[in-house]
Design a protein that fits this description.
The protein has helices at 49-56, 114-118, 123-145, 152-163, 220-226, 301-304; strands at residues 12-15, 17-21, 24-28, 32-33, 36-37, 39-42, 45-48, 64-70, 81-83, 89-96, 106-112, 166-171, 176-179, 185-187, 191-197, 204-207, 238-241, 244-249, 253-259, 266-267, 274-280, 284-286, 289-291, 296-300, 308-311, 316-322. The chain is α+β, with helices and mostly antiparallel strands and 324 residues long.
């Protein structure tokens, strides 16, 4: 393998890879997977992210930064309703498709309906009833996927009965959603988000209103037995510097959002092993590197103390780093 000449004191632009999904597409900016690997743009040209990380001495898997871009059509653009055991996620809403949501307010299915939960004698009974509703819908879904004759009215009825156990929340541009482990969730159609997540691929699918093509089964029984029934608590934002707030803090990484001002550059987290930065809603200058909206870069440790974020009034940058 040819040796890559890298300047470890300069940030590098991330070159994403796009992955098709049944509900739309994902744009991976910092992925190293068999299904696709992102790249970085260096002075020597484009190189795979894994080779770049080796060259600058970053050994741990980097935080996964991606964009979720669902179809605007209901059902078709709704993501899997799923839980994660170890993975933690934070979404920043960047666009709402007005064809899907004319008032500019989309939705996310998040957690379970607390009134419905209280209507059962105990949580065991609630989980059992929900699992029964999911299994009834799965049977209908599999019959449709197998090409068997099925009534659209029956499909809609069973899907509504299943979804009546779940809760949803409105979303608009700029909103932040933190998804802890074991919290059931499904972003809905027409809601585009930037996502930072733990770099692990694991999930348990509770249900999906389309054919699941990424695996041959649903994980409903295990997921419903382990999922959190309590409503997710809103994450309080913490001001860490003028114009900079911490919008997520997990055990392994955190996320800052910086509202930029041309007269007040924002510093990067100097003690982190690296930082991922993405421009949102405008152009951001990261040292000598210029990022357009939804472009991202990786700043290695040696660069963090000497570069700042700059942008015009109203421009936003989100960044994530281990231990932030």
């Amino acid at each position: 393998m040819a040796r890559i000449k890298i300047d470890p004191s300069a940030p590098v632009k991330l070159e994403p890879v796009t992955v098709a999904k049944p509900w739309g597409r994902e744009i991976w900016h910092s992925a190293i997977e068999a299904r696709g690997e992102s790249a970085v743009r260096t002075a020597a040209g484009s190189v795979p992210l894994s080779r770049y990380l080796e060259a600058v001495g970053i050994k741990a898997p980097v935080i996964l930064l991606k964009v979720l871009d669902p179809h605007p059509t209901p059902i078709l653009g709704d993501l899997y309703f799923e839980v994660h055991e170890r993975k933690r996620e934070v979404y920043i809403v960047t666009a709402i498709d007005r064809k899907a949501w004319p008032d500019g307010r989309g939705r996310i299915r998040l957690g379970m309906d607390q009134a419905r939960r209280q209507s059962y004698g105990n949580d065991h009974a609630f989980r059992a009833a929900y699992l029964e509703a999911v299994r009834a819908y799965e049977r209908e879904r599999r019959a449709i996927d197998a090409g068997e004759h099925s009534s659209g009215a029956v499909e809609r009825q069973r899907r509504a009965a299943m979804e009546a156990f779940t809760a949803s929340a409105p979303l608009q541009v700029g909103d932040v959603v933190t998804v802890p482990s074991w919290t059931p969730h499904a972003l809905q159609h027409g809601v585009r988000v930037v996502e930072f997540q733990t770099p692990t691929y694991e999930r348990r699918i509770i249900s999906f209103a389309q054919e699941v093509v990424t695996q041959g089964h649903w994980d409903s029984e295990d997921a419903i037995a382990c999922m959190s029934l309590d409503p997710p608590l809103p994450t309080p934002f913490e001001t860490v510097a003028p114009g900079v707030e911490r919008i997520a803090a997990f055990g392994d990484f955190g996320v800052w959002r910086a509202a930029l001002d041309p007269h007040r550059p924002a510093a990067l987290p100097a003690d982190a092993p690296y930082a991922l930065c993405m421009a949102i809603g405008g152009e951001v200058q990261v040292g000598d590197l210029r990022l357009a909206a939804e472009e991202a870069c990786l700043a290695p440790k040696a660069s963090l103390r000497r570069i700042h974020l700059r942008g015009e009034q109203g421009t936003t940058c989100v960044l994530a780093a281990p231990g932030l």
